[in-house]
Write a structure and sequence with these properties.
Elements: E1 5-6, E2 11-12, H1 23-51, H2 59-91, H3 100-126, H4 129-134, H5 137-151, H6 154-162, H7 185-201, H8 206-220, H9 224-284
Antiparallel strand pairs: 1-2
Length: 288
């Protein structure tokens, strides 16, 4: 074994080692980073639940809480991964053939390896690795559209379709013998399913259009032309709401994706810095 190398305020042993990455230290650092991340995120969630009241929650408060949660997520990930990288580099034995710059680089790479392993561990634990790799932009948009369709209240849309004819501009629309028969619960459920399915498809199938025209004409006493016009207007209104919701979901999903990538890249830089600091403290024999 070569003699001890003096690099700072203390003498440390330099050993022969076939690998420049100490995997035991890397795993320790990644586990510590994952544990710290979970602990801090749980703590932040608890604080957030205490700070938000359902009696005072509104759109402005929700936006503030969302921004605070995003900032807390960023700080926890940067701190946890940086600490894990520091620990891994501090545990890494120094290899005999390394110059000062080379040792600095290897310690930085050790920190980055902790960062990468912590991300993989987080994906595996969350069960997201396969879905994240297979997800495409079209799938995200389609999912958002489906979610938006489900956000529409089908019962209210049915009420709009079946609302009795009322006077408009002082003139009563023509009806066929007054209001028709009462609609059954089964028919309401069927109309509701037609509305949801049509919003998901982007148009009303011809058979469903004919069925709705017939049942609305019978229920309200409106002529078929008026019933068809009501179906078209109500559907377009619901579709516009669904598209607006889908666009909001799309933008929020895109922003979240960019934010997460930015934060994890910042955490990667912190991992490099933490690794070099850990190696420096290891060589100097200091605690902090």
């Amino acid at each position: 074994m070569p003699p001890a190398a003096h690099t700072g305020s203390a003498d440390i042993a330099v050993i022969e080692k076939p690998s420049y990455i100490d995997w035991s230290g890397v795993f320790v650092g990644a586990i510590v980073a994952s544990a710290l991340s979970w602990l801090l995120l749980t703590f932040g969630s608890a604080i957030g639940l205490l700070a938000v009241s359902p009696y005072t929650l509104n759109s402005s408060t929700a936006a503030t809480v969302t921004m605070a949660a995003a900032i807390w997520f960023a700080l926890t990930q940067i701190y946890a991964i940086g600490m894990g990288a520091y620990i891994a580099a501090r545990l890494r034995p120094r290899v005999a053939d390394g110059m000062e710059d080379e040792v600095h680089f290897r310690d930085g790479i050790t920190g980055v390896t902790v960062w990468a392993l912590a991300i993989v561990l987080g994906l595996v634990v969350a069960g997201m690795a396969a879905s994240s790799a297979a997800r495409t932009g079209a799938a995200v948009v389609g999912s958002a559209a489906g979610t938006a369709a489900r956000q529409i209240d089908p019962a209210y849309t049915v009420d709009l379709l079946l609302r009795p004819a009322v006077a408009q501009n002082g003139q009563q629309p023509a009806v066929r013998g007054g209001q028709g028969r009462e609609i059954t619960a089964a028919e309401r459920d069927q109309i509701s399913r037609i509305v949801v399915n049509s919003l998901a498809q982007g148009s009303i199938p011809q058979a469903d259009q004919q069925y709705l025209t017939q049942i609305i004409a019978d229920r309200t006493g409106l002529p078929r032309e008026e019933a068809e016009r009501r179906i078209t207007q109500t559907y377009e209104q619901a579709k516009a709401t669904a598209l607006e919701t889908a666009d909001t979901v799309r933008k929020a999903t895109s922003f979240a994706g960019f934010w997460i990538v930015f934060i994890m890249l910042a955490a990667g830089l912190t991992a490099w810095w933490g690794g070099t600091i850990g190696g420096h403290h290891r060589d100097d024999g200091t605690w902090y």
